[in-house]
Design a protein that fits this description.
The structure is a homodimer of 364-residue chains. Helix content of chain A is 41%, strand content 18%. The first copy, chain A, has 364 residues and is α/β, with parallel strands linked by helices. The first copy, chain A, folds into two domains: 275 residues, Alpha-Beta Barrel (TIM Barrel), CATH 3.20.20; 81 residues, no CATH class.
Chain lengths: 364, 364
């Protein structure tokens, strides 16, 4: 994978291009989350029209349904869902660790029960990699332990050490299977790219150590995981700033699972190249809309006869055509179009924020 | 309203244009149902792209939520939902009569309870017309009694007589309020168009009498109501054929609430100009898809790895991009995109059928 940095800003932010097998992605970039092979309520045509360049798929969900072997036989997730641009899959770790009570940890991996039917499954670093190869995203993630918050140093170190051992196993298995991705022949021998994940809880020296030891293993890119797990926002920011220092400047850096609009802008300016979050899409389905003037809950009575667009400064197809009054009606009447239009607007807002940061960084 | 018949086919089908205040509609036409100011799960952009020229709004639903006065203040339903083409509203009668147990009939009108909150309401012919003027569709419908099936002749006559008295009251009230539609000034003095509805149960001589007496009252167009209420399909067809004979050739004829693909094609060839039905949209949300090769239930296991389009002969955006396997996955995973894509395909199929009949009739 080529990652070309065009410009670096005063605070460390980078205007770059990440050339992946399916698409050259302009960074910093926000990645909409498409859990089960669909960014909920949005057709792929609309995602393309919004300018989304890379989306996320969730390994845990796709493994359970439709099953990674089905997706492999369909030519990989790109073909299965008809998404021509770039894609990243998580390792399944985060979802599996969220199934508290339904899982059992060991050095080998994690045994868990499906949230769909209670059936028993096992994910190891090797298995996660195999599933992710079958899904065939452009970027796949090493299997890591997503630790609870808060955690004492001893617990955080123990978890970090496990994550490092799993990162090594993930990489070894990925390398042994290179060439098994469904689209490899079709894309002229291109391969997937494996990212490592920095853990270490809220302990700066562990973050530093974890980053340095991962960098020695040499991944295609590095993610900062285990954040936005309930800690105060300043602490998230501290951990990101601390960790970024120890990550190579010539590789993409990805902060997982953030965040609010002000966070993603701040992190992009600090030198984070990639972010993903369910917030814009999930909040949209609950009627929380992000605008240049702040957030609004479209269900509120005050919008019942408001003929203005969601955000007067927004150029998206929703703001160009529909009023707050109509969007409120759709939400109150629980119409499916509500989720679609709200999501389109929120994604347009998030993608627009990143476009703004990229323009800002491009002029140095 | 101008209604220009270009060609008439051997069986009586007409290739015509119905020039309404918001749009010149090519007939025979199928009208997608947009109950609460939205064709469920489909953005207005997509309806336009599909070539929908006229859609239906349901007076009962819009009266309850968001309320016709809200819609009036928003400039009418066209503006409220951002639909630039033609629109028709029903009278609310059919929905009100469906609320069995929640309604009380009298000569004056119908008292009913809201299915949303149990609150008490009253619809008379006058009130229905007032609500429909506030909504501001291009075509509005006289308030009629939708009789139960089956019904003896005496009951059918009594109901038909009530429908005729209500038709007269609807027309008188509509004429007394002409000019109060929200967009009248904006559209240079254009007015709405009121259609009468032929009832008479499954009794041919009552259908004839009802049609003749309505024609004397002189409506802008005529609908055939009270069909597809549980009777055998041959009986529906008989009643349509019988009634059509007594309706003027220079006015549009509308069969309400039908039907299956083969029915709408047959009726269009017989001289029906307009039809509406929830079938393509409702069935889509349950996974029933219509194709040139018959119907299929996309949830079936047999489609789990089917890489073909829903209908190989279909040119719609869904068939052009997505596989049966993907649509099945979306349905099984209960993803909101499922309803959207299924509905788009079924509407494309229905609209395409009518396009085919129009092409057939155009060559005479």
């Amino acid at each position: 994978m080529e990652f070309e940095v065009y410009q670096t800003g005063a605070e460390g932010g980078r205007r770059a291009e990440m050339r992946l097998p399916h698409h050259a992605v302009q960074t910093p970039v926000f990645m909409p989350v498409g859990t089960a092979g669909t960014v909920k309520a949005v057709p792929q045509e609309s995602l393309e029209a919004l300018g989304a360049e890379i989306i996320l798929g969730n390994t845990y969900h796709l493994y359970l349904r439709p099953g990674h072997e089905v997706v492999r036989r369909m030519g990989g997730l790109h073909k299965f869902m008809s998404w021509p641009r770039a894609m990243l899959t998580d390792s399944g770790g985060f979802q599996v660790f969220s199934l508290s009570g339904l899982r059992k940890m060991s050095e080998e991996g994690v045994e868990f029960r499906s949230h769909l039917d209670g059936s028993k499954h096992f994910f190891s670093p090797e298995h996660s990699i195999e599933v992710q190869i079958a899904l065939g995203a452009d970027i796949l993630m090493a299997f890591d332990e997503c630790m609870e918050y808060p955690a004492e140093e001893a617990r955080a170190r123990e978890s970090m050490e496990l994550t490092l051992r799993w990162a090594r196993r993930s990489k070894a298995h990925f390398e042994s299977l290179a060439g098994e991705v469904p689209w490899q022949v079709e894309l002229g021998g291109a391969t997937q790219n494996l990212f490592g994940i920095v853990q270490g809880g809220m302990h700066k020296h562990l973050r530093k150590e974890c980053a340095e030891r991962l960098v020695e293993m040499d991944f295609a890119g590095y993610a900062i995981g285990g954040l936005s797990v309930g800690e105060p926002q300043e602490l998230t920011e501290d951990m990101v700033a601390e960790t970024l220092q120890y990550l190579p400047k010539d590789k993409p850096r990805y902060v997982m699972g953030v965040g609010y609009p002000e966070e993603i802008v701040k992190f992009a300016r600090m030198g984070v190249d990639m972010m993903d979050c369910v917030l814009p899409t999930r909040a949209a389905r609950h009627g929380l809309l992000f605008t240049s003037e702040g957030r609004l809950n479209i269900k509120n009575k005050q919008f019942a006869e408001d003929q203005g667009p969601v955000d007067p400064a927004c150029k998206c197809m929703v703001c160009a055509r529909y009023t707050r009054a109509y969007l409120r009606h759709l939400m109150v009447a629980q119409e499916p179009l509500s989720g679609t239009l709200n999501t389109l607007h929120n994604l347009a807002y998030y993608l627009g924020l990143m476009e703004g940061v990229r323009a800002e960084l491009a002029v140095g």
